[in-house]
């Protein structure tokens, strides 16, 4: 079965998008088209049923083309956008073609050009270049944040560490070079989609999750006092002025396909970390931002699975959204600079890390719940259809931490999860997580997490 269909507007200038590939195409959807088919919608205004998976549906394309909406939407998601009143001076301006979470090329263009079709020159795109990484991440993030999967983003570089979105073109008019780029990207996507649909093995799960150390005077003790940068227990850095400091501790347990085993691996590393610290008076703090200015993350690694936008949006809606309802108020201070929706980073080993979550090791019950929920989503993301975060109002509630407005959507999501064939086999490990979620009990980021994990000196406490 061919799992891809290109729904286009029959523009002769874009003919290579379908003639250079083996995918089916047309200006109308065939009546016999399987609901498992992914549809790439390009310059076509057909309203496609929500039963299908669509790249750049007409709904999102129209919204993104509204400049006022585009500016408002990207701003509330923490993406800098040029407005009519902006007074920025740009070092360079780039055109960035994006297709499905990948930058296809970088083009340098004139500071003053208004024509997106004619860049000055192609840049030798290299992700080892810090500026190229910054620009590419920003372009991908802008496309994703608008509900899109492809387009051309115009990015202005303000400094070595800051850039601004100048424009997003959801259905660009392509010159010869960009037609070739998008044609090849569609062919690559087609092959990856076929391979993913044939996959039978479960994803391998790993993680790096952060916590802080606080002494008996209420001050942060740097993790670098006890741990090296690398290793199963290490430390992570933040910039302080012009220098790097390492206040954040990080657990990097052995990966596993079994959530319960991964939880055990975390527990073992905590005991090892306590032996290294060897000071019972130092508290361990987790969550999103237990100490102002030091955001924490709980990054989940996945390998042996295809990174794709449907998986990423399922993780946003079925994992990050419910976890937000458990967060302490201080945890919400991470966003939108950190913890934004769809935050991911590819890894050299071929997998990726999902980075939207806070540090969820606040208790063993929540930890086991998070990892079990991740397993369930990874196994069934293709069948999970709810996307409340596609609605800009729901996004605003998410970023503002308006929990009461979001509970009905999470209840619906959870009902959908419970309808999955394999939910029963995971229900025991999700029971405590679900109970805390729907009892509306947030975690407390000021509590020492060693208490609930029974890490010394709390290892003699009875379980509750």
TrEMBL record:
Looking at the record's lineage, which domain of life comes first?
Answer: Bacteria
Q: What is this protein called?
A: Phage phiEco32-like COOH.NH2 ligase-type 2
